[in-house]
Amino acid sequence: MKVFVYGTLRKGERNAYHLNDATYLHGNAWAEGTLYDTGHGYPVMFLNHSHNASDIVYGEVYDIDMDILGSIDKLEGYIPGRTNNLYERVKARVYTDDGVLDDVITYVAGETLQHSEDIIPLGDWKVYTYLQKSELLYFAYGSCMDDERFKQAHVDQYFKDILGRGVLNGYHMQFSRSTTDGGKADIAESINAITEGVIYRIPIEAVDYLYKREGVHTKGYRPSVVTVSCAENPYDVLTFIGLDKQPETPPTNLYATEFIRGATGILSEDYMEQGKDKIKKLMARSR
Fold first, then answer.
1. In terms of Cα–Cα distance, which of 114, 15, 111 is closest to 60?
2. Of 51, 95, 167, 252, which is least packed with CB atoms within 10 Å of its CB?
C-alpha cells in the first residue's frame, strides 16, 4: 500500500525513521489541499474535494506494509472508529512527475486539529521550516549558475559564497519549462539520473530575488528542499522545480550561453558535454 507524507515523516525530518523499512517511491509528489502550522512543531493538511481547488500540499510517497502503517497510526494519534483522533486516516489522489496515484493513504486533520489557522505558504513544510534557518544553501542548475545575470540585477553580493559542485540524485535536468523566450531548465524525477549544479551559501535577503526570478508567485517554479552531495557530504538545499512541464524545447542562444558559462569550471566535464549535446539536439530538432 502507498502512503503520502507531508510533514515530520519526510526525509530528513525527525519522524522519518518510521519509514526506514519502507520503499521510497516519489519525492516530488502533491495532493490538492491546504497545509496549516499547528503550532506544535508539525503541520496538518485539510483536503480539497473540489476539482477547481488551487491549493496544493507537497510531500513524498512510500510503499509500506501493515507494520509500518500501524506505527504511523500511533504517531498520528489515529484509532479506527474513535471520534476525537488527532489525525484521520483517509485515501486521496496524489500527483507525481510520472502520473496520478489513486487511493493513497494520508492523514488529515482530526477533531482536535480542526481549528488550525496558520496557513503554510506554498504548501511545503520543508521549505517553510528551512527558510527559518540562519544559514541557507541554494542549488542552481540552470541559468542561475551564471554570475552575469546576478550582476545585471545588482544582487551579485548575495551569491559570492560558492560551496562547490552539487549532485542531486534521482532527478534529470530538462528544458521542459516552455516560455515565449525559449525552453528553460527544469528538473524531473528519474531513477538513476543525476543533476549537477552550483551550491551557494546565501542570506535570507536573496530569497526574495530568487522567488521573483523563478516566478514563484506566478506559478512558474516552486521552491523545494532537496538533498545534494558536495565533496561526498550531504546538504539540504533550496532549489526550484517547474510546475507546468511541457515537451522539451530548445533554449535561446542567450540562455544556452548563460547555462554553459555558469557551469564551466564547476560542473564535471562529462555532465557539461551531456548538457551541450542536449542543447545542440534540441536546437537541431527545431530547425
1. 15
2. 51
Is the Cα dihedral 98, 259, 220, 155 positive or negative? positive
The catalytic residue among 117, 214, 248, 269 is 214
CATH topology of domain 131-285: Hypothetical upf0131 protein ytfp (3.10.490)
d(CA 23, CA 121): 29
pLDDT per residue of the chain (287 residues) written in tens, 0 to 9: 999 999 999 999 999 999 999 999 999 999 999 999 999 999 999 987 544 445 899 999 999 999 999 999 999 999 999 989 999 999 999 999 989 999 999 999 998 898 888 999 999 999 999 999 988 999 999 999 999 999 999 999 999 999 999 999 999 999 999 888 899 999 999 989 999 999 999 999 999 999 999 999 999 999 999 999 999 999 999 999 999 899 999 999 999 999 999 999 999 999 999 999 999 999 988 66
Output DSSP code: residue 111.
G
Q: Please give the grid coordinates belonging to residue 227.
A: 538533498
Domain extent listing, the chain: 2-125, 131-285
CATH superfamily, with its number, for domain 2-125: Gamma-glutamyl cyclotransferase-like (3.10.490.10)
Residue 214 catalytic? yes
CATH topology match: 2-125 vs 131-285: yes
